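To close the section, here is one more complete example, presented without commentary so you can practise reading it yourself. The ligand is zinc ion.
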Amino acid sequence: MKANYLKLHLALSIVFFPFLLSAQESAETDSSDSIAITILIVFIIVCAIISGIYNFFKKRRCPHCKRRFCLVEVDRKSLGVVRTRQIKNPDGTYRTERDIRYQITKQCRHCGGQVTFKEVCRASD
Ligand SMILES: [Zn+2]
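Output:
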C-alpha cells in the first residue's frame, strides 16, 4: 500500500506536468506567473522525491524496536489476482501478465517482532 502511495504521487506529477507546461506557455507574457508555475513544478517533484525516500525507510523499519533494515520475509500468502493483461512479445506471440496481491509477513532480526502488510506484485509467464 505504501509503494502504491508513492506511485500515486509520481503518477500525479507526470499527469499534471504537461498541463502545467502548457499553462506556462500561455502565460509567457507575464513572467511572474511563469516563475510561480516553475516553482510549483519543482515543489511537486521535490514532494514526490521526499515521500519516496520517506516510504523507502519507513517500509524497512521495524515498528517494534525502530531499527532499520532488519526485516526479513518469513511468509507470503497469495490473496488472488487483481488484474490480468495480454502483452505482445516482439516475435508476435503473447504473454500473460498478472498483478497478484500478497499478504507478506516480515520478522525483525533483532527483536523478533512481526509486521504484516499487503502488496501487489507483477508476475508474467
Ligand atoms: Zn525489531
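Once you have examined the C-alpha cells, check your reading against these statements. Strands lie at 71-88, 94-108, 114-124. The CA atoms of residues 9 and 48 lie 6 Å apart.
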